[in-house]
Design goal:
Number of domains: 1
Shape: globular
Strand order of the largest sheet: 3-2-1-4-5-7-6
Bound molecules: S-adenosylmethionine
Radius of gyration: 16 Å
CATH topology: Rossmann fold
Low-confidence stretches: 1-15
Strand content: 25-35%
Number of strands: 7
Oligomer: single chain
CATH superfamily: Vaccinia Virus protein VP39
């Protein structure tokens, strides 16, 4: 895969570090992460018409922080993650929701199709975004839509360690090119949907919306 050095900085310092997320799962649900997930959910609701017939996939769902603000507006939500501890917490929190299912698996292993595929803060952990964009396109039902929230370009200071981090945020040009090439007929990037404040720095998030 060839990246345009002008539009993206690619950092590869190791593979997916599941033990890291497994260890962090029990302390994952902080007030700031809940606030961030609620802001992402609001942006999804503002940009995509949700209805009770929709089946949604949340990949890299973690403890389900993005699922709970949306689950009552849709038909069914399937949360997948590679970390068993994250999923255990989600299962416990969501045990009263009949329309929530979970699966210990990665996005590239999914075989079902969905009306909406969403994720929050996962894409920068995935090495091959071209492959991801195609997989997402193929995993959507006709007229399906993706809603991916992640960091806008940052200087590398967001993560303490770059183990398992493949991208220092994303530029609009890069995302538009990759997702249009994958077949999405409409690609829109909503900037600044939330600003994470950390160590006296600001890290804005975007929401990428792509329609099949
Ligand atoms: C930064 S956390 C975000 C968790 C949750 N989406 C949130 O916003 O609170 C990234 C999550 O993505 C999961 N993950 C990383 N690569 C994945 C992949 N290829 N397929 C599914 N999940 C993945 C990790 O295990 C981790 O739980």
């Amino acid at each position: 895969m060839v990246f345009n050095a002008c539009t993206i900085t690619k950092v590869q310092l190791g593979g997916y570090n599941m033990s890291n997320f497994n260890e962090r799962a029990k302390d994952w649900d902080t007030e700031s992460k809940i606030e961030r997930s609620n802001a992402i959910a609001r942006s999804i609701k503002n940009n995509i018409k949700l209805d009770e017939n929709m089946n949604i996939l949340d990949f890299g769902c973690g403890t389900g922080l993005l699922i709970f603000p949306l689950i009552e507006k849709v038909g069914a939500v399937h949360g997948i993650d590679l970390s068993p501890n994250m999923l255990d917490i989600l299962k416990e929190k969501g045990k009263d929701y009949k329309n929530l299912t979970t699966e210990l698996t990665g996005i590239f292993e999914i075989t079902s199709t969905f009306d909406l595929i969403m994720s929050s803060m996962v894409m920068h952990h995935i090495e091959d975004i071209t492959k991801l964009a195609k997989k997402l396109y193929d995993s959507l039902n006709p007229n399906g839509v993706i809603a991916i929230a992640d960091l806008m370009k940052e200087d590398g200071s967001f993560h303490g360690s770059l183990d398992g981090i493949y991208f220092l945020g994303f530029s609009n040009d890069f995302l538009e090119e990759i997702f249009k090439d994958a077949g999405f007929k409409e690609v829109k990037i909503v900037e600044n949907i939330f600003i994470i404040e950390k160590n006296e720095k600001k890290y804005p998030l975007f929401l990428l919306i792509g329609k099949k």
